Batch of 2 targets.
Target 1
Amino acid sequence: MKFGVIVFPGTNCDRDAHHVLSTVFEQPVEYIWHEDTDLSSFDCVVLPGGFAYGDYLRAGAIARFSPVMRSVERFAQSDRLVLGICNGFQVLLEAGLLPGAMLRNDHLQFRCSWVHTLVESTDSPFTSACDQGQVLKLPIAHQEGSYYAPEDLLERLERRSQILLRYCDPEGRVTREANPNGAVHNVAGLRSEGGNVFGLMPHPERCCEPILGGTDGSYIFRSVLGTGVGGRGPGAGETRTQYPALSIRNVEGNTQNPEPRTEIRGNR
Amino acid sequence: MTVSRQLLEEVALTPEEYDLIVSKLGREPNRVELGMFGAMWSEHCGYKNSRPLLKLFPTKGPRVLQGPGENAGAVDIGDGLAVVFKMESHNHPSAIEPYQGAATGVGGIVRDIFTMGARPIASMDSLRFGPLTELRNQYLLSGVVGGIAGYGNCLGVPTVGGEIYFEDSYSGNPLVNAFCLGLIKADEIMLATASGPGNPVILVGADTGRDGIHGATFASVELNERSEERRPAVQVGNPFLEKLLIEACLELLQADYVVGMQDLGAAGLTSSAVEMAGRGGCGIDIDLLRASRREKGMTAYEMMLSESQERMLVVARKGCEGKVQQLFARWGLHSDLIGVVTDDGLVRIREGEQVVAEIPAPLLTDEAPVYYREGVRPAYLEELHRFDPASLPQPADYGRTLMDLLASPNLCSRRGVFQQYDHMVQTNTVLLPEQSDAAVLRVKGTRKGIAITTDGNGRYTYLEPKRGGMIAVAEAARNLVCSGAEPLALTDCLNYGNPEKPEVFYTLRESVLGMAEACEALGTPVISGNVSLYNENKGSAIYPTPVIGMVGLLDEVDQAMGLAFRQTGDRVVLLGQSFDDLGGSEYLKLITGKALGEPPRIDLGLEAAVQRCCLGAIRACLVRSAHDCSDGGLAVALAESCMAGGLGLECEAGALERLLQRDGCRVDAILFGESQSRIVLSLDESHLHALERLAGEAGVPLAVLGTVGGERFRLGGWIDMPVSEMRDAWSDALGRMLQGTV
């Protein structure tokens, strides 16, 4: 499966996304410069985290006008997969490829920490490798991550099961206390109506190797890989393939023993 | 002398220095030249007070690729890789405008790193403030933290640690010392040298504005009630532009179009042009009319002294200038061809055809005056040393004292601060502060890890400067060792008051001597650094505060060691020996409100042995946690290991009594004294014998204290309380102080 990682000026998680896809999951990956417009060779396009155009004006507000975004729109219309992580999620919202908007965190500060998220639906190419109701421990790092949508839109999103991830406590309870930014309905990740576009505030690319303190991010990438070449939109869960047990690698292929590291970091 | 005293004050030069300029130049300098001399001969750029002292530091070692003198130092870590690192102060700007002062401090140190061709992979910040009971200090803390977060997060360089201390002496003059580390292939290090007459000189990045004029001289005088008026001397940062510069410059260096590169920091275009020419032994000819400006009507003087941020000076290979400018344009960066390298050794500044300044480069750099100042031992030392710990009653309730310490400003959790920093971006962060004594990063493509720590106890240095310097180095090395790393080298920020005061100079000299001695003993050379003098507010100096940024190497990053107790049933042991070291302790500060007595003694031989033993035990996979005893002493160290692991501890009364007898000291000294060279380890019972043998061979005292387990923290008959209660007191304290509810 061939991945493209879009680089806007100010993107700063492009190398992380590239690393995880190429080195951990051993997939072909190329960077896509924001002025490039030919996406025809890719099966999945990733909009990584960072501060595209410095997040000046509003996160994602300038990046949506980059030449590549017209192509991303067409790419999404062709039912192929688009994954927006953190700033990439913000860009997708600004571009109208996902519904709703992002507000500043309710506590007004940047927040970098581990959170728990509840998998609300596995009927998606981005969560098909998860179990319904599974809790994923993922890192967040953002200042503008408080998802907002008006009531009628929220109602529609809920009805169509477009909310794939919700902030929750370690036991999977969706509570106000477990919400790190004030997002409505604890929304952490959202899919498009067609199902092939997914945006999430947490950073799955930061937790696919045991040495980094967790591997739950790999469920997202395994889901994407499990859909095979090209997305199939909603219903991809039916074609869900069991991806082989991952050998997590630290670049050189030295297989890590996951056990001790997670213990050290268990106090988060 | 035909220059007014007022004009000299503006450029912070003395009449004697002016006469020296006239005699060296063979004529009176014009206004522009005078400004350039003022900046280059300032303490900040010229180190005129500290240069003789800095020579005392060991700067060489088998792994050192680049010592002091460049934008940053570099150390070989094997596998064809090197780390480049440096620390720099941004104290005065942060005192006036905390957000931008701290933000541009981060921006400046990051530029120093990628100027060398290295990709910045981690930052740290060592901060000092006055007590949070004052609103102004709360404002400074939140502003500084916000600035570091705002700038560093946007760059995508993780802020992986640092430290914050609160002391009265930093009220009004906070310290903001920013550290950055970069990674590079060892044979690709780029130097900031102009060479090859005829090679074009390109200025890239932000347009030049009127911000930051006189920043270098501002940094070299005392703060006073009129300092607020210097707010315009504080620059405003644009992290987005800096991010573009990082990517463009690193790409540029891969292409071999460039012979030298230098960032524009303190003293702006003046220092970058002069230093590049000076290092290359050549001249440089610059036409200011070709440089883009933010505003109309800027004079040559303003252009040369502006400290507008996010600018770089690049010397390209002749004929490559078009390609260089194209590459910058692709990253959306504006660049101007402003000059050329010459062979006459002159820094020549023109406005079109008209020459506005012409000075031989060495006059501004190597020939800057050097002052060998006299130091006088401050009288306060004897008075404070007279304090006798024996006069102190034992606390009525050791548990209560421990709780108070855990909730005190200098010991409580920093989570509220570091969760504002993106500490995970770049996906290398293996261990964070509060998880380990040092931050540990993996090096992708290898099995290695890098450990980083910053450290410096101003109170110890205030109470006995030489010992304070030694302890700063020793403790930094101990932190690295506890994380499983072998210490390699260090960078430092020397933060002191006005060196023209003999008492202040004494503290500077003595602590440098102490640091140098510890560097020799522990094999950690100084490869870069920065001096910040004139840290005074309303006539009184800050605590003399040397801050160390030390870097270590793990051959196997899998061996990175945390401080948390991890396994019920593990045995807990203490390496090292305790004395009646109550002087200068947090405990003493807590109960008397004062800095008193002599700081803890330190035996560098024992220190090295304890570190060898600890590192040997970690490498032999004997231990499950390691944590050094520092601020707050043994009880606080044990409590931190419990809180981090969510596990209790049972120390048998007998074990503690034996320790008390062996070391022959007071109960409060054992619990809360800050004796150096002590490390708490936890390990499986089955490894205890091997550890004892290791300690025996190294000549290190070892005592078994107790066993990990349960939910309570029990130290013999002295302390018994739930770990959860300690955790509550410790984790929320800083937030409560900021909300003014304490």
Target 2
Amino acid sequence: MLTTFTHSLKKSRGAILGWGISMLLLGAMIVPVYSTFADQGEAMEQFMEMFPPEMLAFFGGLADFTTLEGYLNIEFFSFVPIVLAIFAITSGSGMIANDEENGTLDLIAAHPVSRSGLFFGRLASILVSLILILALSWLGLFLPVQFMEEMDLDVIKIITPFLSMFAYLSVIGSFTLMLSLSMPSKRMASMIAGILLIADFFIQGFAELNADLEPIADVLPLNFYQGRGWTDGLNNEWFLGLLAASLAFTLLAWWRFHRRDIRVGGEGSWMLPAWVPFRRKSSPKPAVVEAAGD
Amino acid sequence: MNNDYAIKTEGLTKFYGNFQALFGVDLEVQQGEIFGFLGPNGAGKTTTIRCMLDTIHRSGGDVSILGVDPKEDPVSVRKMVGYLPGELNLDSSTTGEKLLRFFNSMRGGKADWTYVEALAAKLELDIKRPIKNLSHGNKQKIGVIQAFMHRPELVILDEPTQGLDPLMQREVLNLLKDMKSAGATVFFSSHIMGEVQAIADRVGIIREGRIVELAEPRSLIKRSLNRAFVRFKKPVDTADLDAIPGVSVLASDDGMEVTLQIEGEMDAVLKAVAKHPVSEFETERPSLEEIFLAYYEGGN
């Protein structure tokens, strides 16, 4: 498992640096601009009031540009989890399915490593990668603050939204992982996870305008992400709830990986019986030949 | 199951959804032998091999690899086995050496690196080159090295010589013989009859998910149909030849030139033919390939 973990982590170096440095630079660019907003706080608020209330409601109401926290909520924490969800989706969907579809998993799995070792070794490397990306993102906010005297930001408090973001992204990643091990291809898993991610984002926004959507919005993962209100401290129930959901999806994915056959390569099929309408013509026999590989 | 066997399968079945790929495969491979596993594409060779390593789960039956059930303890089985997949795909983002070192670390660093370098030299492979720049044949060599480098007790190779030039094919076959000399068991699948005939102690033929023959290559050839062409000096009554059990007359040109198909021993045919003056007698021994084709085409 340790070999799997270190090997996977080494292979993720590019992704960690690419995502992490991008987020770090984003933070480093956003924070210094705050002083401009702070100086013109009143003017900004007047400017915001010119927008239709529905539109403001969609984005969570009037932005508080008079505080650094309020400014960061709007300029950073509102959309960064959606951007990093792309990393979570690609990592989750590709954790096992990537090597399986390019045909390298067959040989790796024939080495003395249990499926659990393979699964959890790779999962651990993704979690560490995510933590490192979030750490670099945090550094992007923290460092500029240290160099700008007029800014006052609690180092501990600013970790709170990152913790919440970690839990939220874990849910997205583990959900996609589960899909990728239950569906014929990682492409399909990524597509469904992506659609649900965007739907979640819009439902949260529209629920601010339409109370009928609130029951749906209330159970979706983005609702439990603390992009706002983190100055009051971490909402433990939300945080642990997201981690519990992530654990549940992970265990389902692990169970699925244990039960299924490892493909020789390529995408799989649903292996639907012949009487099912609209099934792919290739299913089941060619899929079997592909799976059998001989 | 008996521990004397390197590989033993009993009633091995495998379903992919509703499709049955293996129908009760029974195999026994003795320790220290080279076993050739023959079959056309789609016959179930790779499925059988992958069930042995539990990369796919068998649907029924029993499998024992060096006394261990791969379903119960796949890690122990894989520790003892070197495996080369039939459809070899390697991580192309690295070099051969780094990949081999990764595989070695997955095996707990058991491989003697000088042996790895010796194997690479024997196969004329520069392992420092990026995998993406290697030809199919050179990638296959990396596959062969990773299967052999920890000196396993059993090597399972799915089409080991595919993509290699004839010289390298011979080197790989020599490596298999070396493995056997060192006490290891070799199980390899192939559709190239010549190489199986050259090195295998025993052969198994699989067709449509069923083992249709298990034998030594020599006895397979012996037991099979032979053909004989006889040119007599004067016309003979071919009915006498046709009446011999196991013999049939395939063609006769006025009783002068006769082609016979003989199943089993030749003795009775030779005695019957010797009663007449003969100007020419030729026999054709079928190659393993012909035998294999006979099985494949449903001849048996």
